[in-house]
Design a protein that fits this description.
Helices cover about 80% and strands about 5% of the residues. The chain has eight helices and two strands; from the N terminus they run H-H-H-H-E-E-H-H-H-H. Keywords: Cell membrane, G-protein coupled receptor, Membrane, Receptor, Transducer, Transmembrane, Transmembrane helix.
Length: about 260
């Protein structure tokens, strides 16, 4: 998501930038949702089925699952990239808008397929799986006597709530767009409201990309301790290198003055 931000500035200038931005957006949507779900399943196996999971939670299966997700995400994002085009704005002919332009004879079916795919992935497949996994984890944790149980339960509650708050509004607006295509909400006022709502829903959904590293990394005690360990080693090595360099330089400049090193 962060890598794609500079390209967004030029997305309306030429067709390659338009297709690149569309690809980043679609690929990020599908891969991000799939990987969050995969992490939920991994935690479910590690906690609920700890003994049986020792055979499946291996590097080999992790690589297979990751490659499968990336390939699936690329396949699902490809149609939107293929149809991404630059089109002059309705009010200003000099401004270009980057969005998918489908063939007229199949335009309706392609829009329906896009909306159904996004809703199916996020709302009807991944969200139920995430809720199921974390509910099972909460049941297991509630029966344990671990001192860190309450902290883990709060973290799980935060993960599920943030996913729901960030992605459900977007999927609701996508569903309303589908109703609009089915001519259920086929009014000018409804169309303007849905367009405005989509702009805000996309902002909320994309903000989940910024919240994810905080949830899955910096709040986690294991990651935090490992990061502190790596940083302390780096700064210790850096200070040692600077100290050795300073000692060596001072010794060359004042050879008659004894230098006492702390290292």
């Amino acid at each position: 998501m962060t890598v794609s931000l500079p390209v967004w500035v030029h997305s309306s200038l030429n067709l390659p930038s338009c297709k690149l931005v569309t690809g980043f957006y679609q690929l990020g949507f599908y891969s991000g949702t799939f990987f969050v779900t995969l992490m939920s399943v991994d935690r479910y196996l590690a906690i609920v089925h700890a003994v049986a999971a020792m055979r499946t939670r291996t590097l080999r299966y992790g690589v297979i699952a990751s490659v499968t997700i990336w390939v699936t995400s690329v396949i699902m994002a490809t149609p939107q990239v293929v149809f991404a085009q630059l089109e002059a704005g309705e009010e200003d002919n000099y401004s270009l808008q980057c969005h998918p332009i489908y063939p007229e004879e199949t335009q309706h079916s392609w829009k329906m397929r896009r909306n159904f795919t996004e809703n199916a992935v996020a709302l009807f497949v991944c969200l139920p799986v995430i809720i199921f996994c974390y509910l099972k984890i909460l049941i297991v944790l509630s029966k344990s006597r671990n001192s860190k149980r309450d902290k883990a339960m709060k973290l799980i509650f935060t993960v599920v709530c943030l996913f729901v708050l960030c992605w459900v509004p977007y999927n609701i607006v996508v569903f309303l767009q589908t109703l609009q295509l089915l001519q259920v909400l086929d009014t000018c006022k409804a169309s303007q409201a849905i367009t405005s709502a989509m702009a805000f829903a996309e902002i909320i959904a994309l903000s989940h990309c910024c919240v994810n590293p905080v949830i899955y990394a910096f709040i986690g005690e294991k990651f935090r301790k490992t990061l502190e360990k790596v940083l302390s080693k780096y700064f210790r090595w850096s200070s040692q290198s600077r100290g050795a360099f300073t000692s060596h330089t001072t010794d060359n400049e004042t050879s008659n003055t004894p230098v006492i090193s702390d290292y």
